[in-house]
Amino acid sequence: MTEGRNTRRSLGSGPVVSRRAALALAMAAGLVLPGLAQAQVKSVTIALTADAVILDPHAANELTGNIMFYHFYDALVTRTPELEFKPGLAESWQIVDDTTWVFKLRRGVKFHNGDELKASDVVYTIERLKKSLMASFVANVASARAIDDYTVEFKTPKPFAVLHMALAEVLIVNEKHTKAIGDEQMGLKPMGTGPYKLAQWIKEDRIEMEAFADYWRGKPKIDRVIFKPITNPATRTAALLTGGVDVIQDLSVRDVAGVQANPNFKVVTRPSLLNLVIALDTRDKSPTIDLPKNPMQDRRVREAIVRAINVDAIRTAIMNNFSTPSDQYVPASHLGYVPGLDFRKIYPFDLEKARSLMKEAGYENGFTMTLDTTNNRYVNDAAIAQGLAGMLSRINIKLNLNLMPRSNFFGYIRVPSDKSSFIMSGWDTPSGDAGNMYSVLMYSRNKKAGYGQANRGAFSNAEFDALIDQADATADVAKRNAFLQEATKIAVREIPMIPIHYEQDIYAAKNSVTVIPRMDKFIWAYEMDVK
Amino acid sequence: MASSRPVISATLRPSRLRRFFASEFFHNYKRNLSAVLGSLIVFLFLAMVTAGPFIVSQNPYDVAQLDLMAAFKPPVWLEGGSSEFWLGTDGQGRDVLASIVYGSRISLVIGLVAMGGACLLGTTLGLIAGFYGGRLDAFIMRIADIQLSFPSVLTALFLMSAFGTGLDKVLIALISVGWVVYARTVRGSTLRETQKEYVQAARVSGLPNRRIILRHVLPNVLTPLIVVATIQVGTFVLIEASLSFLGVGVPVTQPSLGLLIKNGFDVLFSGLWWVSIFPGLFIMLLVFGINLLGDFLRDELNPRLK
Amino acid sequence: MFGYMIKRLIQMVVVLWAVSVLVFVMMSFTGDPTFMMVPLDATDEQIAQARRILGLDESHLVQYWRFLSNMAQGDFGRSFVFRQPALTLILERLPATLEIVFLAMALALLVAIPLGVYAGANPGKPASRAVMAGSLVGISLPGFWLGMVLIFIVAVKLQWLPSSGRGPTTEWFGLRVSFTSWEGFRHLILPAITLSIGTLAILMRIIRAEMVEVMKQDYIKFARAKGATAKGILFKHGLKNALIPLVTVFGLMLGDLIAFATLTETIFAWPGIGKLLVDSIYRGDRPVIVVYLMFVALMFVVVNFVVDVAYALIDPRIKIK
């Protein structure tokens, strides 16, 4: 911290600066620092797959944007790379009663403009989010109230044991600044408590950031971070190998061996949170199946489909081994995960068994239906769809493919999904809690507001619903976990959806750069270092 | 009439053919190297898309026939190539040559059908506009003007972005951008024809308009369309390729040559050139052949445009 | 002249209006962009709120009316994705597109004029035939595919030029341009060549055809009879008269270049308006698509107007009415 202040003073600026001056300082520093070429100025250039579209953390929720947001802003609760939840801007919190939480703010946290973080900023953030596109971030907050400058009281609409986990996605903005510059400028000029300040954003070319010396966790180790969007995977690899950039996101699978063979570079991989799942229609009559009764209402048919899908073949042949077959609907780090329970072991790939199940159910001759999925959203989505068609043809299910760009897809499959029988899409729950996924994707439709709104297969199981209700009625995390685990067991038994695999994130970097891959994919320069 | 028909055709046919072979048109054709080359290329393509699927060893879209172990094999003359896949394979072990045969079929069918549709629509509207004149004429031609102020690729791209992918949608988009040129040509010729005495006479004699149009006007305005139509097939193949390359053309389950190029694009930077370069070469050859033929036809049929 | 301008102005407004109607009608076919913006677990209220924020909560007719009335006040709508004025987004990226478009145009003229004149003045010579065959190939190949071939040979194999992206830019009269530095210029070369080929080939054929016509004219014969040198005839009489019609195809050329820039920019990851359009189509970002099309339409109308006037000025035989 002190070191940081010295740097500031040496640049000839007092501790309290106006917004404009701070900006000018940022610009000046951007020009001066590389010129000085001091040994201790560390910088890193990171190539991403795309440019951010907007830098307002309450206006978008896509990966590139999120990566930027967490450099400029902080949340009350911090998510570690392993998806553990630790105190962030909030020093501590306690649950007062079933629907009341009190968060104590850390004192002396500075925004980039020098303002101190106050409870009013937190309350303002919640209110702003409620009116924004990303209102779902605070769906479980009924109200927020400042008790004093450093204490905020949250009310939840119902008992919600994982409020702290949900708040890890709520990035705190500065009330005064945000009101002053307006929504449009917020998208261009981020200003938060985060470890980095925006130096320059040349659209489609670069986002440059510089370390915020007064960062409350301590000054970042890397002084300058530059993000460059490079869309083409091979170009990205080339940029790394020729030295233009230090780290790349999404190393092309084809280039993994080449980069690994080069002693100056390393490849870093980790399974992501994105679970590719197929929703099976369980209504009486299914839109794309030309039969009086929907065969997939029969659990045996659902099981046959699972057993006919060779997830390992998808991994080796289509994903080049860079996927992790899913054992359940959520990863092991999440609440609701049942240790030892493995979808793949319960229903291993077994064509004989699949065929006999089909025969038992009376569908030996199969049927025809349509798979709806994207062709530009998930890794190799179109190839996986074609692979599925081939696999299901072996049990006489003829799968027509309806592949859409994502701009059409999500509207098309939207519940009541009256055009779909078989939908493949991805689902990730960075909140670390299966409850979100279960209540949205598998809870009976139209039973309760805010539940089952994306239950595309219209799965309905009273026992399952009751467990979710119980989980959502307790403010105790351990109890919630137990209820969700029971729900997981039911889901694995009843197969409302088929989990396929988790995509794997692959990064490549120069050996001199320490890269910590995060489960949520949010590359964070604060955790990195350069030798 | 009915009883005499077979006799007429029996006597007419050979003489018509003979007349054609003796005609100046055919004489010029024989002497024109590029015309012969052009028609040869087009003929070979037609032969390939008709017979090709029975000749190539693989149906590239039958998933059961694909072997992922054979992915990214280079063409046969390069190291690592296999005589099974002359032009190499793509990322899913698909024979590039087989994909090209199937893809050419889709490209060519789209080009021909869309041309037919555009020709039909454009000619109809052109006849109506030219024959009746007045407000209807003004309305049709204003639409044509507005459309012509936009490059057709852009219009088609925009239409596809609204429709989503699909063979039928590509056809609609191409017909929507292609009809204008026929409408304009036909309208011009119709205006000229209707001034002529025989049409005036027919009108005066009280023949129904539809009959006049179909019997007297239409046959006389068709010749210039042959050139336009020929060239348009080539243009449509290129536009469709562009749309599919941008991902708004044909669906991945029915890949045209353009989509094959798109599929190969991502691996091009890694040096796997054959997946995308060969399909492009075939598009070029096809359109080149069509254009050669079109050039010759233009010189022969529309000397004014020479 | 004045009457003509008024007429063109009215025509321009009609064209723009037609484009806006068409775009709105067509866009009502596309999926609701709200679903791309909201999380997958959004509830109905959240979706309704997002629609309200994006201005999609009202009927298409009301939306269209709002669009028109906002436009009258100079507000062309706001991108759903960027949440910035769509016009700003386009103007921001315009210099990048103009850079390759103008370079491509210059390249096309520079190559097409001499070759076209040569082929037109010496019809029948083998070299002329080769030029014509080459131009036919140029018309027949998909431009984007040529770009890929260039990338493979020049960038991947030979590594002479960068394969994609825009080089370093500098501020130049308030515009961000890349041709001022060598590194920036190197990035420009391949996209510009790719973009120019189609136009180059068409141009060459037009010039040749004009040249053939001009060479048949009496004044050329006179000049020849008077004993003027072949070169003199070619350049003083032939070229000058053959080039006048070029002015008329200028608008057409520009239109083609802008249209094909969408493909070229996509291949080379060139951050211009063409790539913005393609990206916006993927994202269902309707306001940007609308403004792009209206902007391009306006550009064509203006260019064609200027061309008409210029044509009248160059060629006194033509009267504007």
Describe this entry's structure for a reader.
The complex is a heterotrimer of chains A (531), B (306) and C (321). In chain A, 32% of the residues lie in helices and 22% in strands. Chain A has 531 residues and is of the alpha+beta class. Chain B has a single domain, classed as Orthogonal Bundle (MetI-like fold). Chain B contains twelve helices and no strands. The radius of gyration of chain B is 23 Å and the shape is elongated. Chain B starts with a helix and ends in a 5-residue tail after the last helix. Chain C has 321 residues and is mainly α. In chain C, α1 runs antiparallel to α12 and α7 (143-157) packs across α10. The mean pLDDT of chain C is 82. Chain C has helices at residues 2-27, 34-37, 44-54, 60-72, 86-121, 126-140, 143-157, 182-216, 218-225, 230-268, 273-283, 286-314; strands at 170-172, 175-177. Chain C is globular, with a radius of gyration of 24 Å. Chain C has a two-stranded antiparallel ribbon. Chain C is built from twelve helices and two strands. Chain C is 75% helix and 2% strand. At the A-C interface, α7, α14 and α15 of A face α2, α3 and α11 of C.
β content of chain C, as a range? under 5%
Which percent range fits the helix content of chain A? 25-40%
Which structural class fits the helix and strand makeup of chain A? alpha+beta
Please tally the β strands of chain C and state the result.
2
